[in-house]
Write a structure and sequence with these properties.
The chain has 166 residues and is an alpha+beta fold. The chain has a single domain, classed as Aminopeptidase. It contains 4 helices and 7 strands. Strands 1-2-3-4-5-7-6 form a 7-stranded mixed β-sheet, sandwiched between helices. The mean pLDDT is 91. Belongs to the acetyltransferase family. GNAT subfamily.
């Protein structure tokens, strides 16, 4: 990140009470539901902490998933084996506290998610996200995501061709 933040797996020591982004559904999920999803192994949650204060600046969730091959864009289908579904990492939520917005933390978290997907011992072909609105869709498109078939605001970033040495 920028040297002022570090990314960790969400833990009970992290203070989620003070987190507030400008989307209430993301606030309530982080405060009330994320620990249940993590405990049930439905998702993993990562937080970026401000180094000086240990305050949660932002978070994202990442889970394994699958996309039907027939739902993929035609140019991607041509490059894949003809299995019924394609393994993906699903970026479920990404939120930045209002006090930390405008510092390019969203892009840093997105890159962290991509690196985790690339490093995983369980191979995934792409990262998939459901953009919550036009602003989020523009953010993901800026970072190389494209439409996933005809599904509105569902976007994909194939991991083939992304170089990671780690």
């Amino acid at each position: 990140m920028t040297g002022r933040f570090r990314i960790e797996v969400l833990d009970s020591k992290h203070d989620r009470e003070k987190f507030s982004c400008d989307v209430e559904v993301l606030n309530s999920y982080f405060l009330e539901h994320v620990t249940q999803d993590v405990r049930r192994r439905a998702t993993a949650c990562y937080v970026a902490l401000e180094t000086d204060t240990n305050r949660v600046a932002c978070y994202y969730t990442l889970a394994a998933g699958g996309i039907l091959l027939t739902d993929m864009p035609e140019d991607i289908i041509k490059r894949l084996p003809r299995y019924p579904s394609v393994p993906v990492a699903r970026l479920g939520r990404l939120a930045i506290d209002v006090d930390f917005q405008g510092r390019r933390l969203g892009g840093a978290l997105l890159w962290d998610a991509i690196i985790r997907a690339l490093r995983s011992e369980v191979t995934v072909f792409a990262v998939v996200v459901d953009a919550k609105d036009d602003h989020a869709e523009a953010f993901y498109r800026h970072h190389g995501f494209t439409n996933l078939g005809s599904l509105p605001q569902q976007l994909i970033l194939p991991l083939t061709g992304i170089a990671y040495k780690g």
